[in-house]
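#data-curation
PF: Archiving a pair of folding outputs for the training set. Convention for this channel: one message per protein, sequence first, C-alpha cells after, nothing in between. First:
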Amino acid sequence: MDLQQRLRSTFVEALALGEDVDVENLKYREIEEWDSVGHMALVAAIEDEFDVQFDTDQVIDMSSFKVALDMLRVLGAGD
C-alpha cells in the first residue's frame, strides 16, 4: 500500500468515515467528523501509523488531506 492509500485508510479509521466520503478532497471542519476533537484523534492516528511527530504549527496547519499528505512526504514517511 502506498503512502496516499495508507493515509486515506488512517483518515477513514480515525474519523470513522463512511464509504461515500471523498477523503482525498476532505478539508478540516468541512464535515462533522473532522472537528477539533476529531482533528486531534486524526493527528495522533497519523503519527502512530507513520511513526512521525508533528510540531504544533504542523498540527494547526493540517487543514486537508492533501496538506497532511504533503507533510508526510516532507517528513520522509513511507520511504
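PF: Second:
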Amino acid sequence: MATDANCLFCKIVAGEIPGEIVHQDDRLVAFRDISPKAPLHVLIAPRDHQPNAAASVAADPTIVGELVAAAAVIAEREGYPAYNLLFNTGAEAGQTIFHTHLHLLAGGITALPV
C-alpha cells in the first residue's frame, strides 16, 4: 500500500492526525470535512495513497466502487436518502489535497466543495 509521509489524508488514515471518523474498513476511511459545504459532508478516502480518482482506478479498478458503496452506507446511516457524490481531480477542478477522496454531501449544498 502506497503512503506519502507529507500527505494530510495519509496521516488521518494512519491515525497520526485526529479526524472525526464515521466509517472505516481495511481499504478506506471516511471522516467529516472540517469545512463542510452541507449538513452532511464526509470525505471517503482509500487507505492507499494515489493523487486522484483516475490514478486510483488505474492502480485498483475496484476502489471507486468501494468508495461509492461506502457513501451509500454512510448516507443511509446518517438519515439522508438523497445525496451528492463528487471527485475533484486536479488543482484546476478545486482539488487541494492530492490524495484520492470522494465527497459525500447531503442536506443541501451551500457551495461546491474545493
